[in-house]
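Deliverable D5.2: sample structural annotation.
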Amino acid sequence: MNKVLRIVAVPTLLSLAIGAQTAWAQQASTAASPATNPPSAETRAQKHEDAVERRIGELHTKLKITDAQAKPWDAFAQTMRDNAQKADQAFRDRAQKLSTMNADDAMKSYADIAQLHADNMKKMSAAMSDLYAVLSVEQKQIADALYRNKDESSRQGPHKHKGHGPASASSVPATAN
């Protein structure tokens, strides 16, 4: 019995000790570093907006969008912008209220964000369908490659987003919001 206890207890205690040291080191490094103000909501929003615009530019270049494809492309790009703005606003609203929410309210607000994401993906899908219909065979092959998730660890999709869907610069995909 003592041998079994040692087999189970020793790794557990080592894990706890390592975890405690890591947590302590993080607290110590945070305390040792000078206090910095977190970026304002406006700064974060501007950085996200800039990232969305960069992604739109990257996609425009990679897909080799022509003047004849401008109308569906512009609609697709505007959908990306609108979705990103809606998601940013939803996350800001939730963050402002989170400290006063009870568990039920927090779960509902998360469900609302998930629903917004789903609604935005539907809008993005419709905009992509319109754009995809006017792409050349070569452009379709490029789009197909961009939107496939061959390797989950190296996102190659339209937005680079913490491992969810085909990729953005924020916690909610720019193309999905």
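Annotation notes: Residues 104 and 120 are 24 Å apart (CA to CA). The first helix runs from residue 2 to 32.
The annotation will be released with the project's public dataset once the embargo ends.
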